[in-house]
Amino acid sequence: MKKNGINFDEVFKLYYRPLCLYAIHYVRDVDIAEDIVQDCLSLLWEKGGEVEHLKSYLYVMVRNYSLNYLKREAVFDMNCSPSDLEETLPDEELEEYSVMEARMWTAIDALPERCREVFLLHKRDGMTYKEIAELLHISVHTVDNHICKALRLVREGIKALYSFFFG
């Protein structure tokens, strides 16, 4: 889909995941973060994509929609001033962190299925090698091999993504 010279499929592929991760830092809910990002991308589409600095525009838009959501849902402390948030939510760091986190999840998503499953059970769910081995009916040694392989492939995947975009 193109509008005013902007390929929205490419914009979506490039920014959707990092923007969702960015929004999660504010709203602390995956579904709400996705809704916010979809609303922002829809609004960009409706405006025709006529924006000078697209990346900055999207991040500011997502931040503002996230803060509006918090205010609307009374999650936000109304006695809090914007200056109180400066140390808590540094936008540049959150943006950089969300991009790095998106790269990491892209690399994890590319892992072979069983390797990814073992890796996530250990890293995300905090299970021990022994617990994973018992759950999946495999040896502890096999769990260790999957974790080592996953770490190597994630490292390589992050380096490959980084050099693709910035190399």
Task: Please give a structural write-up.
The chain is mainly alpha-helical and 167 residues long. It contains 8 helices and 2 strands, in the order ββαααααααα. A two-stranded antiparallel sheet has the order 1-2. The mean pLDDT is 79.
Count helical runs: 8
For the secondary structure, the number of strands is 2
Order of helices and strands: EEHHHHHHHH
Largest sheet entry:
2 strands, antiparallel
Strand order of the largest sheet: 1-2
Binned, the helix content reads over 70%
Alpha carbon gyration radius:
19 Å
Low-confidence stretches: none
Terminal CA distance reads 28 Å
Taken as a percent bin, the fraction of beta residues is: under 5%
Question: Which features does this protein show?
Answer:
167 residues, mainly alpha, two-stranded antiparallel ribbon, 2% strand
Question: Helices and strands in order, then pairings?
Answer:
Blueprint: E1 2-3, E2 6-7, H1 8-27, H2 30-47, H3 54-72, H4 82-85, H5 91-109, H6 113-123, H7 129-136, H8 140-166
Antiparallel strand pairs: 1-2
Short description:
The protein is mostly helical and 167 residues long.
